[in-house]
Request: fold
Amino acid sequence: MLTSLIKAFTNLFKKPQTIDYPVTPIIKDREYRGLIEYGEESCIYCLKCEKACPPGAILFVKTETPSENEKNKKGLQYHYNPYLCIYCSECVRACPKPDEALWQSNKKPLPATKEGKVNESWFELEKLKKTE
Ligand code: SF4
Ligand code: SF4
Reply:
């Protein structure tokens, strides 16, 4: 009991072990895995990233009225769901053009919106994908 009291008292004068976030910014690790970024110009539409993604956070869905440019790219449109993503980097590992077509940035994941409509449009995309 007395030991605990002494420890608690001395702790009052020690530097805190926690970071005063958001006043003090968090220093990210060099290997920090953040949001996935996509470079449309370099993508060859092999869909390896889509197949490799464990939670299905990447979807290539056919656009209803593809532009001339999209027709050249099989009429597929890239979609990424940062709320489903588990930041495992499997998609980047599977991509034949890493760092050009797909890469993992050190950008932080997005906060969920207050409206709770995080995945609403995503469910529509998933339905579309199943009917292809
Ligand atoms: S990092 Fe993992 S979960 Fe996120 S999109 Fe890539 S494969 Fe999917
Ligand atoms: S794996 Fe890379 S090149 Fe293939 S579709 Fe995905 S982003 Fe494009």
Observations:
- The pocket of iron/sulfur cluster (ligand 2) is lined by residues 43-49, 94-97, 101-102 (CB under 6 Å).
